[in-house]
What we know:
alpha/beta; Aspartate Aminotransferase, domain 2; binds pyridoxal-5'-phosphate; Aspartate Aminotransferase, domain 1; 14 helices; four-stranded mixed sheet; 17 strands; 2 domains
Amino acid sequence: MNLEQVSKLESKLLVSTYDRYPVLLHKGRGVYLYDNKGRRYLDLLSGIGVNALGYAHPAITKTIARQAKLLVHTSNLFYHEYQGRLAAALTKISGMDRVFFTNSGTEAWEGALKLARAYAQANCVQGEQPKFRILALEHAFHGRTFGAMSTTHKEKYRLPFAPMVPGVEFVQFNDVADLERKFDSTVCAIGFEFVQGEGGIRPVSGAFAEAAHKLARKHNALLIADEIQSGMGRTGKWFAYQHYGIQPDLVTVAKPIAGGLPLGALLASEKVSGCIHPGMHGTTFGGGPLACAVALQLVTILEKEKLLSHIQKTGSYLMEQLHKLQAKHPGIVEVRGQGLMIGMELESAELAKQVFQQMLKLGTIVNRTDETVIRFLPPFIIKKQHIDTAVRQLDQVLAKSTTAVTTTGRNK
Ligand SMILES: Cc1ncc(COP(=O)(O)O)c(C=O)c1O
């Protein structure tokens, strides 16, 4: 089937939720994707932060093949070898105590909200109403299920499905005074991404993170870190909160954790996980042997190949090159982020759209988020030479697009 046939079939049969790029993907190797006609694309998005080791990494494909022949699914009624071993690896790199495995990011976040409410109930003074308010941040994105959606800031994600889960309030981004105003003894948890992803690659300030941590301690509320996009090494440390020297009570992980297979995890401190008992929470698929065996292999490779330090180096290099572009192109408003999680904010949504489309035409995949931000989430194995290619293309595209956008604006 060709692209036209596939898109026609989908438009007739699929629920219309996605606005896909006009590319029919066939295979991937390393940092490259190939379409059905054999055209190569340099991938600076890695399936929205999922394909950490790129495509067809030999150790990952070998683990998938080996485990697929042995056992793919067990349900959580039985033991298999890999959940415990993966939990040992995850608790070691995160400083957390216990793990609950899920299938996706939103499911991990949902679990975190449930645990926060369960913790509040367990710690409620007898005769009093358990506290249930949850604070989230402006620009936050936590997923599409009800709890996650209710803590996601943009109205376009929430309003069509109202009413939301009660008790959620949004705090102005990096506004400590607003945080202090809203954070009192009725709050059971505050949850945020230390580096916001969908919201436009916005790192929270040290002062804000510190204040949130202090207020959570003061009110016996939980601090939940959403590391679904920023975790597992993406920012150059295992988790973005580790740049801040803050230890959360709950951490959610997903996207890159199993090298492309669907898996998520909720990491919890001992004091919080003690509030959950058998039967209170669960999942049919989460933590299956195939996904867990691959995730364990992924952690081993990240450690063995010293990929965290590689991410720091290549991330700094990409940031440097984008700052050079900023000095040259007035259409670039700001470049921000950490490690290989970088956003380039442009002066208009139209310019960002053009840059994204032109880059795709040149054979490089980037993404536009929060309307005006070009987002880079390349595979962790990206090398300087790939960055040089992409930056050269961006330079060319920005020169052309800025003129085009300005001219169109003038004509209006
Ligand atoms: C920070 C963050 N949290 C939660 C989610 C939801 O994850 P999933 O799409 O796997 O449900 C995402 C997805 O983009 C995310 O970036």
